[in-house]
Amino acid sequence: MRIFVKAKPRAKHASVKRIEENRFEIAVRAAPQDGKANDAISRALAEYLDIARSRIRLIAGAGAKQKVFEIADSKDLLIK
């Protein structure tokens, strides 16, 4: 399953907002340097979906605000 994310690094408050079934807006406090914001986004997404972070892989948009993550073994995943 692919998850499309609009990233908001350096936010005052961290949040995960579901826009559509597989689209999210994720705000993180981390700066977009050295992959810190990407790590924080994948952590927030894993926590929101209640899955292991190791199941989430960034496949596009490492240096952009629009990102695409792939969830491994997503057959058992129910998005809240």
From TrEMBL:
Pfam families: DUF167. GO terms for cellular component: cytoplasm. InterPro entries: DUF167, YggU-like_sf. SUPFAM superfamilies: YggU-like. It comes from the Bacteria. Belongs to the UPF0235 family. NCBIfam families: DUF167 family protein (TIGR00251). This is UPF0235 protein A3J58_01660. It comes from Candidatus Sungbacteria bacterium RIFCSPHIGHO2_02_FULL_52_23. The lineage of its organism: Bacteria, Candidatus Sungiibacteriota.
